[in-house]
Amino acid sequence: MAPGALRVVEAGARVYRRTWRGSVISTFLNPILFLLAMGVGLGKLVDEGAGTATLDIPYLTFLAPGLLAAAAMQTAAGDASYPVMAGIKWRKTYEAALATPLAVTDLVVGHLGWIAIRLTFVTTVYSGIMTLFGATTVLQGMLAVPPAVLTGLAFAAPVMAYTARLKRETGLATMFRFGIVPLFLFSGTFFPVEQLPAAIQPVAYATPLWHGVTLCRGLALGFDFPVHPLASVAYLAAWIAAGGWLAVRFMRRRLVV
């Protein structure tokens, strides 16, 4: 990472040092509440039926790795949207940064680097809580952290590019309502994609979250991968590369040209 990008990462860390208390609930309490409500509460009903009979595992065990990937997606989308809009429009910190030797590429790479650090912390905590619930072992849970971080970055880069084009922040609410939430529900987090209508399944397979969920579930539970794991990693990396390139292009157009 270039020195300029490292300065952006450092700035993010300095800000977070003073604001971390605001993320305690989302980082520690949300995983517990989700696993209690969906894994333990709903899972009891599912286990009494035929929902996971073909998997031979409790629903909590099936659900937890999917929620790990979904949590990474939601965290990354949040950090790549409103803070970026603030830097461009509200607080204009990006304009101030560009008055220094920093370049637009430094801003984008540095912000994505800081998001990667945040994702590592959030997913590690989630993995630990998942282990405490008995969904997986400590080692397997930790193995699922890197693909979860990769999944988050596969959303962070395109969301950053999307935000850089917006003139009004209402587009962010639209993105979460019609993009992030449907992906959370229909990318294999709560049930196998094979249970969706046949016409919708290819759409689900094309989403980055589905690839992240399969990687996390395969590593955390020892499941067979529906596609080769390296293909899923390459697919997620392609989303990061394309999103990052677009983010640099749109940010330069918005702030420089």
**Helix segment tally:** 12
* Content of β-strand: under 5%
Q: Give the oligomeric state of the chains in this entry, treating copies of one chain as homo and distinct chains as hetero.
A: single chain
How large, in whole angstroms, is the Cα Rg?
19 Å
The secondary structure category is mainly alpha
Tell the overall outline. Answer: globular
pLDDT averaged over residues? 88
- The end-to-end span amounts to 25 Å
pLDDT < 50 stretches: none
Helix content: over 70%
Order of helices and strands: HHHHHHHHHHHH
Number of domains: 1
Strand segment count: 0
Reported for the largest beta sheet, the result is:
none
Describe this protein's structure.
- With 257 residues, this protein is mainly α.
- It has helices at 3-19, 24-48, 59-79, 82-90, 93-98, 104-132, 138-143, 145-165, 170-186, 201-205, 208-221, 229-255.
- Helix 1 packs across helix 6, helix 2 (24-48) packs antiparallel against helix 3 and helix 6 packs across helix 8 (145-165).
- The longest helix has 29 residues, at 104-132.
- The chain is globular.
- The chain starts with a helix and ends with a helix.
- The mean pLDDT is 88.
